[in-house]
């Protein structure tokens, strides 16, 4: 058994988040348990563990104050996850209205053996709007024997009416002290020899997540790594693998060449670009907050306006990593844009070609840092009707040459870019067509309800929106609406609209198999 599950808190006193523990103790002591609670906070902070503890408290046969005995039939079955009256539902995979309808019928039935029937709905924000509205009625007038516990990392995505009918319990990012306390419990139980300084390094790497902290410790032990502070700092890439202060200095100096060279070395050093960006943005954020009187500024040389601009560029790069053909490319483009603003004005004032020179220089630096030929890069990130344009065209203002409509050629290009990222999403998109585009929102007409629901899935929608934004050169929200499918004969003959054909049906079947399993 993984250490995180083995040392999962079993009562409120063992909950690592003190504030949450105290809130739940107050609720239990009042002996008036709300019929619906909302546990909201970052991943790995103990939301599901707290929900299971509360389920044990409500059903324990030998409860003492707010502490379940952990030995009775109810406590043991809940801990093992096989209690018939404690139902855990993953809203990410059971998010449709039909799933909620089944739930609404089931809640009417009395508990099999327990006092209360508990429904723990994980990732509740993933429920569709229709499913959320269907659940709302049950939350308003639940049977006496039912308690709902909704857990989510994104409470703002829940509809307001559901949030207003639940008792809100906030889970915050764990402090380093809380994570160290959690790690000490595991280290003691497993007889792992590690001092407090080493635990602090692991806590820093866990980034506020109890689960991630224990997983890191477990990996280090299983790989028989040295647990000294110095080694952990090197191994977890928090200090010696990259130097944030030196990188920020280069950003202040706007040394494009050196910055791109440093990024190009990430692969050989084993540095994850995402981890680096998170650390960099975090450090810049501290400096930005100090500009408005919160904290002390450790960065000299960047104004508040410059910090905002730089953080915005890096934030875009962080979001683009998942869909980029080259992991380092979004960060390289961000630093080239950052360093290029003054270069563009200087070159233009001297009578040069301005943006054209900048595009050539930027392209050369990006391509040289990866030691690959330009044709390979262009094949991976080609833009519609790009002609001789290259990667560096992204330096241009996104409002220039704004595309006013999504025609058949542009739609085909979007499909071709989505396919290598996720073939299933591309197959689903072929059962849709662009209806309208106003410069900010692209409306897709989707022929089948199932395809619409899959495309509205957060992960799938992000892939589509990121690709559309690259092609249309503007941040774009994608909205799906159901439309009547064209007649079969039109599907076979048309060359303009992106619709299903006989051959495409096989791809849709394959996509469904990948989503639901064989």
The tally of beta strands, per DSSP, is 8
Strand order in the largest sheet:
2-3-4-1-5
Cα gyration radius (Å): 27 Å
CATH class of the largest domain: Alpha Beta
Percent range for helical residues? Answer: 40-55%
Which fold name corresponds to the CATH topology of the largest domain? Rossmann fold
Can you describe what's shown?
The structure is a single chain. This protein has helices spanning 3-6, 18-29, 47-59, 73-80, 97-106, 129-140, 160-163, 176-190, 196-206, 210-222, 229-235, 244-253, 256-264, 266-269, 273-291, 304-320, 329-349, 355-370, 374-381, 408-418, 423-429, 449-455, 458-472, 488-493, 502-516, and strands spanning 36-40, 86-90, 117-122, 146-152, 167-170, 432-437, 441-446, 477-482. By secondary structure, it is α/β, with parallel strands linked by helices. It has 4 domains: 3-170, Rossmann fold, CATH 3.40.50.300; 176-235, Helicase, Ruva Protein, domain 3 (Orthogonal Bundle); 244-377 and 390-395, Zinc Finger, Delta Prime, domain 3 (Up-down Bundle), CATH 1.20.272.10; 408-516, 2-Layer Sandwich (GMP Synthetase, Chain A, domain 3). Helix 5 (97-106) links the parallel strand 2 (86-90) and strand 3 (117-122). The radius of gyration is 27 Å and the shape is globular.
How do you describe this structure in short?
By secondary structure, the chain is α/β, with parallel strands linked by helices. It contains 25 helices and eight strands. It is globular, with a radius of gyration of 27 Å.
């Amino acid at each position: 058994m993984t250490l995180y599950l083995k040392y999962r808190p079993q009562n409120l006193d063992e909950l690592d988040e003190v504030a949450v523990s105290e809130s739940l103790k107050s609720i239990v002591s009042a002996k008036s348990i709300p019929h619906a609670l909302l546990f909201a906070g970052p991943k790995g902070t103990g939301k599901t563990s707290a929900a299971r503890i509360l389920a044990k408290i409500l059903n324990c046969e030998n409860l003492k104050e707010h502490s379940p005995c952990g030995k009775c039939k109810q406590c043991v079955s809940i801990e093992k996850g096989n209690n018939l009256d404690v139902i855990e539902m993953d809203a990410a995979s059971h998010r449709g209205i039909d799933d909620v309808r089944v739930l609404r019928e089931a809640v009417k039935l009395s508990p099999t053996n327990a006092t209360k029937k508990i429904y723990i709905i994980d990732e509740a924000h993933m429920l569709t709007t229709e499913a959320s509205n269907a659940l709302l009625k049950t939350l308003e007038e639940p049977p006496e024997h039912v308690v709902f516990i909704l857990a989510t990392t994104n409470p703002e995505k829940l509809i307001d009416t559901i949030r207003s009918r639940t008792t809100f319990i906030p889970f915050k990012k764990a402090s380093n002290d809380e994570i160290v306390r959690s790690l000490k419990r595991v280290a003691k139980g497993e007889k792992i020899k590690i001092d407090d300084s080493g635990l602090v390094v692991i806590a820093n790497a866990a980034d506020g997540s109890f689960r991630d902290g224990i997983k890191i410790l477990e990996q280090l032990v299983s790989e028989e790594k040295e647990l000294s502070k110095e080694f952990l700092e090197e191994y977890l890439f928090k200090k010696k693998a990259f130097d944030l202060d030196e990188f920020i200095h280069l950003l202040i100096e706007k040394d494009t060449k050196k910055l791109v060279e440093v990024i190009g070395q990430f692969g050989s050093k084993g540095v994850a670009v995402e981890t680096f960006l998170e650390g960099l943005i975090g450090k810049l954020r501290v400096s930005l907050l100090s500009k408005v009187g919160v904290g002390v500024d450790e960065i000299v040389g960047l104004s508040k306006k410059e910090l905002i601009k730089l953080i915005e560029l890096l934030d875009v790069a962080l979001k683009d990593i998942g869909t980029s053909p080259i992991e380092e490319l979004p960060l390289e483009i961000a630093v080239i844009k950052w360093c290029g603003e003054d270069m563009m004005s200087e070159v233009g004032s001297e009578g040069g070609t301005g943006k054209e020179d900048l595009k050539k220089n930027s392209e050369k630096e990006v391509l040289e840092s990866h030691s690959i030929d330009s044709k390979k890069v262009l094949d991976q990130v080609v833009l519609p009707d790009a002609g001789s344009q290259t990667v560096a065209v992204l330096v241009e203002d996104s409002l220039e040459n704004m595309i006013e409509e999504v025609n058949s050629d542009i739609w085909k290009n979007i499909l071709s870019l989505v396919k290598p990222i996720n073939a299933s999403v591309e197959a689903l998109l072929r059962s849709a067509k662009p209806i309208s585009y106003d410069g900010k929102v692209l409306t897709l007409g989707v022929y089948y309800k199932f395809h619409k629901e899959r495309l509205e899935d957060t992960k799938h929608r992000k892939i589509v929106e990121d690709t559309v934004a690259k092609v249309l050169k503007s941040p774009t929200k994608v909205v799906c609406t159901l439309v009547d499918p064209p007649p079969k004969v039109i599907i076979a003959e048309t060359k303009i609209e992106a619709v299903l054909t006989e051959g495409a049906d096989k791809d849709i079947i394959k996509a469904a198999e990948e989503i639901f399993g064989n």
